[in-house]
Design goal:
This protein folds into two domains: 18-188, Immunoglobulins (Immunoglobulin-like), CATH 2.60.40; 218-317, no CATH class. The chain is 30% helix and 29% strand. It is elongated. Helix 5 runs antiparallel to helix 6 (306-317). It has helices at residues 2-21, 41-60, 63-85, 236-242, 270-286, 306-317, and strands spanning 27-29, 36-39, 91-94, 100-101, 105-113, 120-127, 134-138, 143-151, 156-159, 163-167, 174-180, 185-189, 218-224, 246-251, 257-261, 290-295, 298-303. With 327 residues, it is α+β, with helices and mostly antiparallel strands. It is built from six helices and 17 strands. The longest helix has 23 residues, at 63-85.
């Protein structure tokens, strides 16, 4: 019950802070009014120690003890001011975050700038529900970049709802922090299937409906054997020498065009179908094939290259079955 009450209060405080701050854009400057500060566990212990020193000084009327107590108290107030100032005025700008596959860790790129005349040390950034904190320093007038990690669970858009910027510098007696609500998101592709079947043969083939050879005009190199490779393309002599099967790769005008079709995947589960199609897209790109993607209600024309690969992966990441609604 105590944990539930604490979570409820935390959520109410965060909602109040978000209404107070308003939405953040692609860049912002941390103003003093949006920076919060509280003593750390060490800070509370330090304050208790000062209180005991004060009681002892009063009990024994010892001027040296009074002086020590006041000096340590002044040090604590100085640390509190420095901790708050370590974040005040910090400029944060969102960067370009590369897409990832489901199950991988996305890294949200942020650019930091220190317009002040003093060094900022021990600045930490983390996702509100992330497991890892990134810490860095900024020289006076300096710039830097950090990558805040966040684990992806499923395909689609992964949003970093709340960014926590904090510091306990110096002495770790106080913790000052700010909540940042920037429009940070990254595209998550489906997880490629590990046991996907071989690529489908070109539709029609060359002559007599036979599956077409893989562009035999120009030999482009060797790769590891994959189930389904034609025995005619296996480099038998080299394979015997290196004690593993290698397959010849060819490029040229003879390369047939492939359709990676939703209906040609035997899986019944939609997510597993997308995983197989994702693996096919990666394989087709690695083999320099030209290919297209057929999904229910969406067709991506045949093409090739990195841009085409990324377009197909994006279609898979954002795909919804007709009539279905994805949250």
């Amino acid at each position: 019950m105590f944990a539930a009450t604490r979570n409820f209060l935390n959520q109410r405080i965060q909602d109040w802070a978000r209404r107070r701050q308003g939405p953040d854009g692609d860049s912002l400057c941390l103003e003093r009014r949006r920076i919060y500060i509280l003593p750390t566990r060490q800070g509370w212990l330090y304050g208790l120690t000062l209180f005991v020193f004060l009681l002892g000084s009063m009990n024994y009327s010892n001027s040296m003890a009074f002086m020590l107590t006041f000096v340590l108290t002044g040090l604590a107030f100085t640390a509190m001011y420095a901790c708050h100032a370590n974040l005040a005025g910090l400029e944060i700008t969102s960067g370009k975050t590369p897409a990832v596959f489901a199950g991988e860790t996305a890294r949200f790129v942020l650019h930091l700038a220190n317009p002040g005349r003093s060094r900022r040390s021990g600045i930490s950034l983390s996702a509100a529900h992330g497991d890892t904190t990134v810490t860095g320093d900024l020289a006076a007038g300096g710039h830097g970049s950090v990558a805040v990690p966040l684990k992806s669970e499923q395909r689609g858009w992964l949003k970093l709802e709340r960014l926590v910027v904090e510091t306990n510098y110096p002495f770790a007696l106080f913790r000052s922090w700010s909540w940042v609500y920037m429009n940070l998101r990254v595209l998550v592709y489906p997880k490629p299937a590990e046991d996907a079947p071989p690529l489908p043969w070109p539709e029609g083939g060359r002559g007599g409906g036979r599956p077409a050879d893989r562009g035999e005009e120009d030999f482009s190199g060797l790769r590891g054997y994959r189930p389904g490779d034609s025995p005619r393309h296996i480099a038998w002599r080299i394979s015997a020498r290196v004690q593993r099967l290698l397959t010849k790769q060819f490029t040229g005008s003879g390369e047939e065009q492939r359709w990676l079709d939703w209906d040609r995947v035997s899986e019944t589960d939609a997510e597993k179908r997308l995983s197989v199609l994702c693996r096919w897209v990666l394989t087709a790109h690695a083999e320099n094939l030209t290919y297209g993607l057929r999904l229910p209600g969406k067709i991506t024309p045949i093409s090739g290259g990195i841009a085409h690969r990324d377009r197909c992966l994006e279609e898979l990441a954002l795909f919804q079955l007709p009539g279905a609604h994805r949250t």
